[in-house]
Amino acid sequence: MGVKYIIVDPDELSNIELKNILNDIKMLDFQGSFRTFEEAEKNIRGGYLDVAFIRIGDVALNAYKLTKEIRAINPLARVIFITNQEEYAIEAFECEANGLLLSPFNRDKIQCFLQKKY
């Protein structure tokens, strides 16, 4: 049984790129990919997850609200925000994110975030 994770990102290409990188990390167990806040919220309520990769900066997505929902289910869940804009770093940490992953994605950076806990 691996580390259960989801991806929440309205950008389909970014979603695919990240999932392809994460597929190579054996300890991870993919639970789903969601393009809207509503999809993600509906699907996380029914199960347990360890890590969420959430696109920050998309108003429709509401990454902050989703983070609260995830932490209500599992207070130890790691939330890693993804973005292509560095200016979201302060907001990410104000929301108590465990990390900020800048595009283009890098497998080594992702593993660094994951190894801090697992």
Write a structural description.
With 118 residues, the chain is of the alpha/beta class. The protein has a single domain, classed as 3-Layer(aba) Sandwich (Rossmann fold), CATH 3.40.50. The chain contains 5 helices and 5 strands. The protein has helices at 12-23, 37-44, 63-73, 89-94, 107-115; strands at residues 3-8, 28-34, 51-55, 78-83, 99-102. Strands 2-1-3-4-5 form a 5-stranded parallel β-sheet. Helix 2 (37-44) runs parallel beside helix 3 (63-73). The longest helix is centred in the first third of the chain and has 12 residues, at 12-23. It is globular, with a radius of gyration of 13 Å. The two termini are 13 Å apart.
- Biggest sheet statistics: 5 strands, parallel
Question: What does the radius of gyration come to?
Answer: 13 Å
Determine the structural class based on helices, strands and strand pairing. alpha/beta
Molecular shape: globular
Distance between the termini: 13 Å
With helices defined by DSSP (H or I, 4 residues minimum), what is the helix count?
5
Number of domains as seen in the coordinates = 1
CATH architecture: 3-Layer(aba) Sandwich
- Average pLDDT rating: 85
Strand order of the largest sheet: 2-1-3-4-5
Got a strand count?
A: 5
From the 3D structure, determine the CATH topology. Rossmann fold
* Sequence stretches where pLDDT stays below 50 over 5 or more residues: none
Question: What's the CATH superfamily, by name?
Answer: Response regulator
**Proportion of residues in β-strands:** 15-25%
- The amount of helix comes to 25-40%
The H/E string reads: EHEHEHEHEH
